[in-house]
């Protein structure tokens, strides 16, 4: 079976205040990655991510399922984090298994209370984030005010990688400040096609200033960039991206993108950004496991050949059967294999393994470190349990808050 290289996996979640557009953004991501061929309206009970019956009744997203999709050579595991205030514990649980997140804000409402609390939770787990300012088409949309609130309310350092052309009904597209191009999203094929143009003259000055600020931010993570910039030497897009990626993974900066999910504008560059700036499982710190009844502590590297260690972060009933979602930190889970549930002290059988797509489940033979997999057949497991190899027992207890891995300037 073909496994993608570890570096190409992105385990991400979308976090936001309710109504900011998390479901719409998720829907569009699944659409543009080809996982969903029809765009459903989110509150008509047909949205792809909201497939639990309770959600259909209540019209809110409450599960933490993982849907796999592909973009730009990456396998993206989209972990659905709940947005409603009642489910903060669930948000926290799912944040533990994310390597990165997209924080969605409404350009009209800015940083709302729930985005603030989930942002703080993400700070605790040091989850690298990129920001998407949604609803740029709505009356009152003001990306500058949202940026100001990200700075003031969240105490974070947003870095614009785009600026818009037009606002509200005349929102036309975004300037890509790295490529120095103006992107529009064709009406054809529901906006799948991105068209590239020169930067419009009326926003050229604003783009130049925003680009300068962006390069100053990049220079904090790559000294040579600043020198080249001051000398007027060319700086390749790859170098700028590399520096911004470093700063993002260290949670020092938060790249900002914008658009309108409802009108299909801005999602493709957001997907490119997930691939470019958010970390792979290999870029995040290893987890720490404790050997039961001993003082031995294991540092579990993201290595498929290492000792098996997985966290059951979500257990749900699926057509009357138990389906457990595992984040595998180390080792390999094989279909039909025996696992040791070190939280409950019992054997379990991973009867069948699935990769969950938006509309189908794909049965697989094995899943490796760094991945997320749904497992049928685990009888005793509860959310939060550690699963490992019976010959190498280890338990993940209250996963430690990781230190940043990137060496800081
Ligand atoms: P969630 O609660 O964060 O998942 O938000 P939803 O995705 O359900 O969106 C909340 C409401 O905002 C829905 O009525 C969407 O149709 C609407 N919406 C989402 N994105 C946009 C957008 O870009 N522009 C406008 N005008 N409305 C949007």
TrEMBL record:
Assigned keywords, A-Z: Cytoplasm, Elongation factor, GTP-binding, Nucleotide-binding, Protein biosynthesis
One Gene Ontology molecular-function label: translation elongation factor activity
Binding site for GTP: 16-23, 80-84, 134-137
Domain Tr-type G: 7-282
Localization of this protein: Cytoplasm
Presence of the UniProt keyword Transmembrane in the record: no
Chief location of this protein within or outside the cell: cytoplasm
Recorded family membership: Belongs to the TRAFAC class translation factor GTPase superfamily. Classic translation factor GTPase family. EF-G/EF-2 subfamily.
Function as written in the Swiss-Prot or TrEMBL entry: Catalyzes the GTP-dependent ribosomal translocation step during translation elongation. During this step, the ribosome changes from the pre-translocational (PRE) to the post-translocational (POST) state as the newly formed A-site-bound peptidyl-tRNA and P-site-bound deacylated tRNA move to the P and E sites, respectively. Catalyzes the coordinated movement of the two tRNA molecules, the mRNA and conformational changes in the ribosome.
The protein, known as: Elongation factor G
Species assigned in the record: Geobacter benzoatilyticus
Gene: fusA
Positions spanned in the full protein: 1 to 409 of 688
């Amino acid at each position: 079976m073909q496994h993608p290289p570890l570096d190409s996996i992105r385990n991400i979640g979308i976090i936001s205040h309710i109504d900011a557009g998390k479901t719409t953004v998720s829907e569009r991501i699944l659409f543009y990655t080809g996982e969903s061929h029809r765009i459903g309206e989110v509150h008509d009970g047909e949205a792809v991510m909201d497939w639990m019956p309770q959600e259909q009744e209540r019209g809110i997203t409450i599960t933490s399922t993982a849907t796999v999709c592909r973009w730009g050579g990456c396998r993206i595991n989209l972990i659905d984090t709940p947005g409603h205030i009642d489910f903060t514990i669930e948000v926290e649980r799912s944040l533990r298994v994310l390597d990165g997140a997209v924080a969605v804000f409404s350009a009209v409402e800015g940083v709302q209370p729930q985005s603030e609390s989930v942002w703080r939770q993400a700070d605790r787990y040091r989850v690298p984030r990129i920001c998407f300012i949604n609803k740029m088409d709505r009356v009152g949309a003001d990306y500058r005010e949202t940026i100001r609130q990200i700075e003031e309310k969240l105490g974070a350092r947003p870095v614009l990688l785009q600026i818009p052309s037009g606002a509200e009904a005349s929102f036309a597209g975004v300037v890509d400040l790295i490529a120095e191009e103006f992107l529009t999203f064709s009406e054809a094929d529901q906006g799948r096609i991105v068209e590239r143009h020169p930067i419009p003259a009326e926003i050229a000055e604003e783009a130049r200033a925003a680009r300068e600020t962006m390069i100053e931010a990049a220079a904090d993570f790559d000294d040579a960039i600043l020198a080249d910039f001051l000398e007027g030497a060319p700086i390749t897009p790859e170098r700028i991206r590399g520096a911004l990626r470093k700063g993002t993974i260290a949670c020092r900066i938060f790249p900002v993108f914008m658009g309108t999910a409802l009108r299909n504008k801005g999602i493709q560059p957001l997907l490119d950004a997930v691939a470019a700036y958010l970390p792979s499982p290999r870029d995040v710190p290893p987890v720490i496991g404790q050997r039961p009844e001993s003082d031995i502590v294991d540092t579990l590297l993201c290595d498929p050949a290492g000792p098996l260690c997985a966290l059951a972060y979500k257990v749900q009933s699926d057509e009357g059967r138990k389906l457990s979602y595992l984040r595998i930190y180390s080792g390999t889970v094989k279909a039909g294999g025996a696992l040791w549930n070190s939280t409950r002290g019992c054997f379990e059988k991973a009867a069948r393994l699935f990769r969950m797509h938006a509309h189908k489940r794909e049965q697989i033979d094995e899943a490796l470190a760094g991945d997320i997999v749904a497992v049928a057949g685990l009888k005793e497991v509860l959310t939060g349990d550690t699963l490992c190899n019976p010959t190498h027992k280890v338990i993940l207890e209250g996963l430690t808050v990781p230190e940043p891995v990137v060496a800081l300037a």
